[in-house]
Amino acid sequence: MKKIRWGIIGCAGIAKRSVIPGIQQSETGEVTAIASRGLEKAMQTAQQLNIPTAYGSYEELLADPTIEAVYIPLPNHLHKEWAIRAAEAGKHVLCEKPLAINADEAQEMVEAGEKAGVVFAEAFMYRYHPRYNSIRDIIKSGEIGELRGIHGTFTFNNSMDMNNVRYKQEWGGGSLYDVGVYPISAARMLLNEEPQAATVHALFSEEHDHVDMMASGILEFNRGVALTFDCGMWADFRNTLEVLGTEGRIEVPSAFVVNQDERDNFFVYTKDGRREVKVPHINQYSLQADALGRSIRNGDPLPFPATDAVLNMKVLDACLLSARERRRVEI
């Protein structure tokens, strides 16, 4: 397969730490250009990461006819503009989560991708890890009995970085947007259905432009099953997932961001005791890039279509409304 030529729109930390190395280590892709709002920053990042071409504007990168696909790690409020512009330029798009500020914006973006005939995906790298196929297989097998609930956490403490884009309300800041989306998307994926209602309580911080710095919530699914979750940017680090059944449970210690010290293993608890399911360490970002690469080159369907991002944003909209108005919101 001829490698996909990727361009990166922006020099965000997630791009430099994880996504660019992931694409570079993938089987199907190579990063050939990066753009920033200033040429100096783009050149510096290009040199650090061995990227051949640097551009001093996003427009220049989109005008490069050799670029086939772009990754967009910009602040949330810029996703819609640059994803649509990239699609209209004929580029395939991988856009950082959450896809947009709300479901209406996400729908516009997906429609722009469909109209342009490009592959369009939201960047939830953890979903491409094969361990989640194993977890779904265990649930389906009945080993842990009937499903009773899912609990997810994703918290970290970066509260002293007052200039962080996550702490700007108009830019789509807040913990629900940044990390709450992970347990929400995970529950939807494992249950293969959409929640009916959301109830969320949050800490809105005056020091951080009134964004939600911590949020705890419940999503109501069918048959009395619920996702309970908490997410935060002003709390100790955790990123876990527990799937509870009538006869056992599954615990994933590093559910979203992989802890290389503990590998990617997870644990199954039943009446027979604890079973560790060993999973080889695999670069989730490379798997994500390869899924897009095979879709671009071979027409393979994406494991998670762009329309899934719209559904996830509908849930996120309900969570934010519930938190701000202190009430249960039907979805």
Structure characterization notes:
Helix 5 (103-116) runs antiparallel to helix 9. The strands form two sheets. A nine-stranded mixed beta sheet has the order 14-13-12-11-7-10-9-8-15. Helix 2 (39-49) links the parallel strand 2 and strand 3 (53-55). It has 331 residues and is an alpha/beta fold. The protein has helices spanning 13-24, 39-49, 58-63, 79-88, 103-116, 131-141, 175-191, 284-298, 306-325; strands spanning 4-9, 29-35, 53-55, 69-72, 92-96, 120-123, 147-157, 197-205, 211-220, 226-232, 234-245, 248-252, 266-270, 273-277, 329-330. It folds into two domains: 4-126, Rossmann fold, CATH 3.40.50.720; 130-281 and 313-330, Dihydrodipicolinate Reductase, domain 2. The longest helix is centred in the last third of the chain and has 20 residues, at 306-325. It is globular, with a radius of gyration of 20 Å. The protein has nine helices and 15 strands. Residues 4-122 form the Gfo/Idh/MocA-like oxidoreductase N-terminal domain. Keywords: Oxidoreductase. Residues 133-251 form the GFO/IDH/MocA-like oxidoreductase domain.
- Which CATH-level-2 architecture of the largest domain? 2-Layer Sandwich
Round the Cα radius of gyration to an integer and report it. Answer: 20 Å
**CATH T-level topology of the largest domain:** Dihydrodipicolinate Reductase, domain 2
Mean pLDDT: 96
The end-to-end distance, rounded to whole angstroms, is 43 Å
Q: Give the total of domains.
A: 2
Fourth-level CATH superfamily of the largest domain: Dihydrodipicolinate Reductase, domain 2
- Which structural class do the helices and strands define? alpha/beta
Number of helix segments? 9
The main β sheet shows up as: 9 strands, mixed
Element string (H = helix, E = strand): EHEHEHEHEHEHEHEEEEEEEHHE
Topology, number of strands:
15
* Beta-strand percent range: 25-35%
Low-pLDDT stretches? none
- CATH class of the largest domain, anyone? Alpha Beta
